[in-house]
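All the exercises in this workshop are built on plain-text protein records. A record pairs a protein's sequence with a compact description of its fold. Backbone structure tokens are a discrete shorthand for how the chain folds in space. Once this layout is familiar, the rest of the handout is easier to follow. As an example, a complete record with its sequence and its structure tokens follows.
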Amino acid sequence: MIQQFRRFCAGLIVSLSAFGGFAGAAENADLLLSGPLFPAIETFHLENGMQVGVVPDARATFVTHMVWYRVGAADEASGKSGIAHFLEHLLFKGTEKFPGNAIDRTVKAVGGNHNAFTSHDYTGYFQKVTREHLPLMMEIEADRMMNVDFNAADVDVERQVVLEERARGIETSPRAQLSAAMDLALFKNHPYRRPIIGWRNEIESLNVDEIREFYERFYTPANAILIVAGNVTLDEVKSLAGKVYAPLQNRAPAYQPERPQEPDELRMRQVITVRDPKITNESITITFRVPSFRTGLPGENEAIDMLSEILSGTTRSRIYRDMVIDRQIATSAGAYAGSGARDDTTFALYATPKGEVTLEEMEKELFAAIDRIARDGVTSDELDRARKRLFANAIYAQDSASGLANILGRTLIVGNRLEDIRSWPDRLRAITPAQIQAVAAKFFDPDKAVIGLLRRPIDFETASLKKDPA
């Protein structure tokens, strides 16, 4: 299962805003978040370097057990795209203790569910079971970390599954094709330019030895994070993890990603158009490269998230209210920021025009929305409402143990700290209108944007008649 976390959500800091739909609680949110965020969460390390995060929630009827690995599609060698996601598939083919489809049968036999995900920055595996089956889930993941037996037959079978997934997800989807082309334009040097699932020709050439080498390099305790959330205590998890995970020996050192970064001189305006008969509603997406929480200066990432919320957080936010409700020139419009990535990430504006409005007119409107903030700033009232909405989302996030497990995992795995979660409310309180105006002016240069257009095919006969009615 591929999750484009870099684009559509983001580690803690933006994932808190992804719990949307709870703006009704916004008025009291600042008061309710007067202390540190998620105070019950604790982390510790085992002797082999494996980090552990515990999210106690006595109300939960299930326990979420997750193992995250500090490796994703951005860490693949040149020419080996797709290997991280391919390996994720193969880890469901069995281990020494759980051969064949025994993992699937075992989890389902105890009434649980399980799955996995791959992003540019990490790979993760999880189960959701009742608490008495937590030791068994740990046993499964410990064995999967160390004892997968790869063979060429399984690789060939799963290769076809991955290629079919790619065909469904990218090759037959105009929107996905446009997204992949825009990533290539926005990231000319950084490996975020590659699709997580990989390029077809490189998937076809991956072999069992390359996959085994990748597994043995990155799947090791010091490169993993265990998250347990639900009706458990810190002492219980320490005891279980000490018995199951602590004895595992590292076969490789912890991985510290060192990826090629983007040279500023390659940032330039580009327009990419995809035409397809399947497109019924034409649309525009404009992307910019912006800093993540890890790569930005203090306050920049928080200001970018607040900018996104002011532009597009609710139907009353600037872009949607102006273009969809008031002037009715678009059927949809908004913005999103992906600030939870390890490296520089993406900010996007998007719109679908209404009636006879053209994509060129939509482009002007979206750039104008950003330019107005860069020129005139935002009001204190806009900033206050956006902050309260984000705080309300964070309050409601605490009602889901599995949701908190995801927040904690996505935060820690890219190199951020538990303290970064706890200090998030104070950092948002410190953001000023001037900081939002500053990031709008600094990062949203139209001459450095990548513009993606989804269009219907050209009717060449009609176009020719219009040019030459005779």
